[in-house]
Model the fold of this input.
Amino acid sequence: MLPIFTEEGRYCCKQAKKRRMVALNLHWTLLFLGLWRTWPVFGDNETDMHPPVNGLTQCGEYSNQAMANGRCRLVATLPQLAEQRCPDVFRCTEEVSYWLHENEERKQQMLDLKETISELQEELRNHRHRINVLEMQQNEENSLNSSLEQRFHILEQQYAEASTLLHIHGSLIYDMQTQIHNLSVLAEKVRRNPGCMINILRTTPLLSTQETLHPEVQHVRNCPIDCASLYYNGVHRSGLYVVIPSLGAVPVEVFCDMDTEGGGWTVIQRRQDGSVNFNRSWKEYKEGFGDLHTEFWLGNEHIHQLSSQGDYMLRIDLEDWNNKHKHALYESFHTDNEESQYRLHVTGFSGTVEDSFSWYHNKQSFSTPDTGNICAEISHSGWWYHQCFFANLNGVYYKGGRYSAKGKNLLGPDGIVWYSWKDSDYYSLKKVSMMIRPRTFRPRLSP
Done:
């Protein structure tokens, strides 16, 4: 037996189709060599031989064997002919080799493809797992975000409430600090006033009614009830001082004029530069507002307490924009309490200017824009109005003095008016002040 050819075992030993192709190749090769008569055509089995063709005698046999190294051993036994010898070794034809090579590449490609598909499937499973994890995390985050959003809204509401409370508390603390500071200043000033005894601020029930209302009772006890009593205690310089009205028994800071006509004046109102807005409410006019150094209204309650301690007189100083100065003096002045809307009582006019105050405004109640009084609303101030005024010292400050209803689109005059000054409601004065002192006041001459 002669070895014909050898190929990879996995191709020749496992695939019958390949064997058939090899056998057919050998058949055609032998036919080409003139040996067809003596070469059988092999079938699928290892020893399968075709029957004789055209009466020719069958010869030879075919067998294969898988070797230990994985190769295939193909063996063919042929009879020797005298005229022709069989070739010692048969190799695969180029066509068979090509298809064997192509089949090997396709198989390797399929293996690679299977491997790639397996990897892709594994990666796809991993991706699906990650997607499931992310979806679960997203659901948890959505739930957490919803909870956090609710908590955030609750915290926002709580913060707004806390801010409001903090603002209120801050305002209260500021007011308390201001009051404490003011009381401390007042107490210090009262303490420094000569001989003032704070423990007897109120009149005692043991005193008679006449003694209680007499201004000299508190003066005897050295507590200043007004600027006149301060003057009697040796204070002769104009400035801010603290007095304790006998009726109110509450310290009040006032500006004392110790220069005009002998001094002793307690200033209750002043206008001089328009720095303070006098369009205020009833409460503000009651308690007082402004700056005692410049423009202010002392407060209706304080004016009532001061002017009701005894017999007081009123002085009004006026100055126009040409620096011309005049004054009005009233021998009797006081106001009622709040229940009577601080009704005005003013009589006994004298002075260097014609009266525009007492003859028209005497016994009139005080009004402010928020009380519904049309005159107060038109005049933008608080005053003792009477259809509406001939004097309005708390009116709007017009620089230069001249103003008109048409130019300002006004319903009526609202300036700092003293009608008899120019016989006009549309001239606003530059400076005015109102101050009171006891009618019995007598300045002490220096030795």
User: Anything to note?
Assistant: Residues 1-17, 30-59, 198-221 have pLDDT under 50 and may be disordered.
